[in-house]
Amino acid sequence: MDAAQQEATARARDLQRNWYGEPLGTLFRRLIDDLGLNQARLAGVLGLSAPMLSQLMSGQRAKIGNPAVVQRVQLLQDLAGQVADGSVSAAEATERMEEIKKSQGGSVLSNTTQTTTSSGAPTVKRVVREIQSLLRSVAAAGDIIEAADSLAGTHPELAEFLRVYGAGRTSDAVAHYQSHQS
User: Which has the closest alpha carbon to 36: 71, 111, 88, 102?
Assistant: First the structure.
């Protein structure tokens, strides 16, 4: 790869970080690991060709052009969080991935969990899932618990926050969030 290609790839990854919160290669590798997929299966669930997925992962392409694919990425991130916190089994995850694959931009999984209010503000559940996703992108649940344990004596509130959001169930994190809003 020459200097111009390296610069273009770095620029694409920066754009991805701005648009999606992190480079798509990082996000897609985490989904592959968390959901037990390979690249071809992930591409199929998202509705992308394998070469397109590869280009997005490598930074040869910056943006996902199809809004339905972007929504499927978000649904898979939510599903990966549910698998990680134990609220969804591997078998249920496989079924849900089939539903996600069939979704046409309409929301298959979030019919009952609206992601924004009528004013356009994100719902509590959406905010909580973003916090969970961020923490879980930084460290594994076991590492987060270990960090919480080391903070418990001097900073119990921070330790609780790490445990609830970093390794707990979404429903517990929503309750925690609501209890700390005035």
Answer: 88
Computed from CA positions of residues 157, 159, 162, 163, in that sequence, does the dihedral angle turn out positive or negative? Answer: negative
pTM, to two decimals: 0.57
Q: List C-alpha distances in Å: 124 to 7, 131, 137, 173.
A: 38, 11, 20, 10
**If you average pLDDT over residues 88-114, what whole number do you get?**
70
Q: How far apart are CA 148 and CA 162, in angstroms?
A: 6
pLDDT, residue 134, reads 80
Mean pLDDT within 11-33 = 90
Of the candidates 93, 67, 91, which has an alpha carbon nearest to the alpha carbon of residue 80? Answer: 93
Nearest to 163 by CA among 178, 180, 145, 139: 145
Tens of pLDDT, residue by residue over 116-125, are: 444 455 677 7
- Please count the other Cβ atoms lying within 10 Å of the Cβ belonging to residue 87: 12
